[in-house]
Amino acid sequence: MSDILLDVKNLKKYFNTPNGVLHAVDDVTFSLERGKTLGVVGESGCGKSTTGRAILRLHEPTSGEVFFEGKDITKVSNQEMRRLRSQMQIIFQDPFASLNPRKTVSEIIGEPLRLYKVHKSKKEQQDHVLELMELVGLSQRLVNTYPHELDGGRRQRIGIARALAMRPKFIVCDEPVSALDVSIQAQILNLLKQLQHDLGLTYIFITHDLSVVNYFSDEIMVMYLGKVVEHASSEKLFEHPTHPYTKALLSAIPVPKLGEKKKRILLKGEITSPINPKPGCRFAPRCEYAKPKCFEKTPMLKENEPGHFVACHFCEEF
Amino acid sequence: MAEHDSKYTLEIKDLEVQFKTVDGVVKAVNGIDLAIEKGKTLGLVGETGAGKTTTALSILRLVPDPPGKITGGTITLEGKDLFSYSEKEMETIRGSQVSMIFQDPMTSLNPVMTVGDQIAEVIQLHEKIDPKEALEKAKAMLEMVGIPGNRGTEYPHQFSGGMKQRVIIAMALVCNPHLLIADEPTTALDVTIQAQVLDLMQKLREKYGTSMLMITHDLGIVAEVCDNVSIMYAGRIVEHGTLEDIFNSTSHPYTEGLFGSLPNIENRNEQLKPIPGLMPDPTDLPPGCAFHPRCKYCKDICKSRVPAVTKLSDTHLVACLAYEEGTGVTLGGGDNE
Amino acid sequence: MENKKAKKRSMTMEVCQRLARNKMAMLGLAILVVLVLCAVFADVIADYETKVVAQNIANRLKGPSAEHWFGTDEFGRDIFARIIHGSRVSLVVGLISVSVSLILGGILGAFAGFYGGRVDNVIMRVMDIFLAVPSTLLAMTIVAALGSSLVNVMLAIGVSGIPTYARIVRAAVMSVKDQEFVEASRAIGATNVTTIFREIIPNCLAPIIVQATLSVAGAILSTASLSFIGLGVQPPDPEWGAMLSGGRNFLRDAVHLTLFPGLAIVITILALNLLGDGLRDALDPRLKQ
User: Fold this and answer.
1) Is B43:B181 a contact under the CB 8 Å cutoff?
2) How would you write B144-194 as a 3-class SS string?
3) Do the Cβ atoms of A21 and A15 come closer than 8 Å?
4) Nearby residues of A90 by Cβ (< 8 Å), 6 or more positions away
């Protein structure tokens, strides 16, 4: 019996723009077991960040359902949602923009504690803040510094401490390391893994970096222009990428190793934006295998083999 | 003048650059040596604050002064001392002999000029050519980087990020420079677009025989496009060698740490071994080897003695006390490779 | 050194300390303190009945002298004494009316900027209507309707200043509200009001403070206009703006009639500006050296 923490069904988020309706997230369905990590991968504009925010209702979903521990959170009142937020947190990409420059480290980390009135006295709250700082590996002497005095890695640790303050069960990590240097990146990744292990956290890990997602996730969902094109366990996805887009994406990663120049699939053209999309596969204009059918009928996500979902009309042929 | 049949397009010796700020003197570059052979690509690898971009700007003599100042060393371009040129002469060199591609394609183009005009402008600055011909040449150059020539009449905002970077590449190469400096040219781009742009740069470089200085933090890109690599840390080159040297017989603990920080795409169960600690504050560099506070092999002597450059082979240089005789430092227990 | 940092520093203390290090701001504060003391102890410095309102035609339009430091006006009253007593009215009117426009305009602008859409449209169109009516006319109407009194004058001038603040605050809020830390605040479960007051407003202070210190002068002069048409302070009570406009007729022969009230206004504004700039910098932790 698997223990499903998060169940997302037909999630959609459309934005009205001057040029038409932008289908940022279009019919995304998945479920996530407690304690596991789902990696969401894609290039800019594929809707991965919007998916993460729509699940937390930071963007109100246009339609669809999000079950968190069996409760549909798209239907609950704002007040109830505010209570639920202590269970579901987010870590942001930009460690510079996501911290209020006018607050000290202790104020930033203590803000959720203050909001939920966790502690009766300031002293207790301060002690809790110090505990959290230790948990994420921040030296306690930084408690009264301001974010601008710190480097990116430490700021990201502040963001993590803030997210952990209310002991959430589930955290959306929105590109938490892409703004950081390589050596710092590895520190933060290890920290997040350690925390997951110690606190039993469930993650959605949003990134454009495939090598990071492979290291970090149990399952991977590849998105292209608002649609899920492939969803499988990390091993399966990296061993048998099936969708042509996934294949191209995997082949495009520069690998820091010599002597294994892979055959690189160079995609033609550029990513467009899914404004008023026509029916058909959204990847078709860039796909080297595209056939007339791909431009007419939207492929559904179907189980190609157990646990391996692909949205492509011709995936059996590859 | 003695003729220069030197095999190097660019030679930097002992370059030092400092910035004077309110917090003290920032030693951005502390005596580095670099050399790029004709037609070859050198990768300059390092993290934020290592001094990579400052080095690049020094080659163009564009270090903002004040607060920056080149305080020592020589830069030789095509056998000629760069510091002997007047500011006027420098202007003709920039763009024609050396050109640079910046990281952010969004802000490197003038938003109120058509793309074709911008490329033509570069040509007219360096060649006596009438405007019409320049525009024709600009068109041809656009075709070369894979953009239909008639899109030259469009404005930058009508192009996507990858296309803009192509335009910038076209601009940088239009006067056939001997040396192309690319400062993180693909960092702002998506993976599939990055692959396209790198591929394009490779092809054009081979076609024109341009030497290139590739500044990046991504060892994956280095493995694909570079011939030689210099690893930079806190304003110094800590290791230099061919791709083989760096990737297959990694010698400096920092380089080793960089590789350990990268997730292995083939083996997802491998643990990351990050470098502990942070980049040092450039106004207050640690004495001795600047890397010692983060180095797992650090011995007392590392805290006081600045490591000299040791030659491991004809091509492989490293600046670490473990390779100097009689220092007692060993990289024992190292689990590299 | 390290331990010092770990000690809990209170935000207010820290701002005060940073302010104290700014010499110009301290100068502004010193001037302001002197002005306020003058206003508080005006009766001690110069007697109201004998010096401020009692007329003495024989002494009219005298230049500055040992007896009358700033000279006398067209009715032979001591200008120094009138300025001291006038500061009671002018300072209070200036500060209170600006606070009224700041608080009301600020809140309206913050909500308009934060919620956008319909809320923004409704609030800002009402503000546009206010802006379309000349502010003096608006103030006149309000005072005429509510009756002529000092409180009503302050209220009227304050209300006519609301649209300016609403516009400034709205623009500042809109530039801040899309930053990630605002989203982060929502993500940890903060209500919109909490987010506006704890995250957004503190990051919009700079333009607000500058505008506020500048508009004190405008408020003092507006009081003068209202007084001039008989809706503000009633003669013979002294008031800086009224003294300034009253002295206009004698500009050729007796400059001191306008010079000294003018100087009083200039010095007040200067002091407020110096203090305001210092405060703006002290409130921004990023500018700390």
Assistant:
1) no
2) HCCCCHHHHHCCHHHCCHHHHHHHHHHHHHCCCCCEEEEECCCCCCCHHHH
3) yes
4) A52, A53, A56, A58, A163, A171, A172, A173, A174, C184, C187
Tokens of residue A136, six digits: 């994420």
User: Could you tell me which of A71, A252, A89 has the C-alpha nearest to residue A162?
Assistant: A89
pTM of the model: 0.82
Residues comprising chain B, all counted: 337
Chain A touched by B142 (CB under 8 Å): no
Angle at B251 between CA B245 and CA B252, to 5 degrees: 125
Which positions in chain C touch A159 (Cβ < 8 Å)? 184
DSSP H/E element including C242 = helix C240-246
Do residues C217 and C154 make contact, with C-beta atoms less than 8 angstroms apart? no
Burial label for A299, CB within 10 Å (0-12, 13-18, 19+), is: buried
Cβ distance of C187 and A56 shorter than 8 Å: yes
Report the first-to-last Cα separation within chain B, whole angstroms: 49
Distance CA C219, CA B175 (A): 62
Q: What does the alpha-carbon distance between residue C156 and residue B163 come to, in Å, rounded to a whole number? A: 58
Residuewise pLDDT in 10s, chain A (318 residues): 468 999 999 999 999 888 888 899 999 999 999 999 999 998 887 889 999 999 999 999 999 999 999 999 999 998 899 889 999 999 998 888 899 988 999 999 999 999 988 888 889 999 999 999 999 989 888 888 888 888 888 999 999 999 999 999 999 999 898 888 888 888 999 999 999 999 999 999 999 888 888 888 999 999 999 999 999 999 899 888 999 999 988 888 888 877 666 677 778 777 777 888 888 888 988 888 888 888 888 898 888 888 899 999 887 776
Structure tokens at A238: 């990296």
Chain A: residue whose CA lies nearest to C4:
A141
Chains that touch C (3 or more CB pairs under 8 A): A
Contact A146 C284 (CB under 8 A): no
Q: Do residues A25 and A49 make contact, with C-beta atoms less than 8 angstroms apart?
A: no
Contacts C203 to A, Cβ<8 Å = 100-102
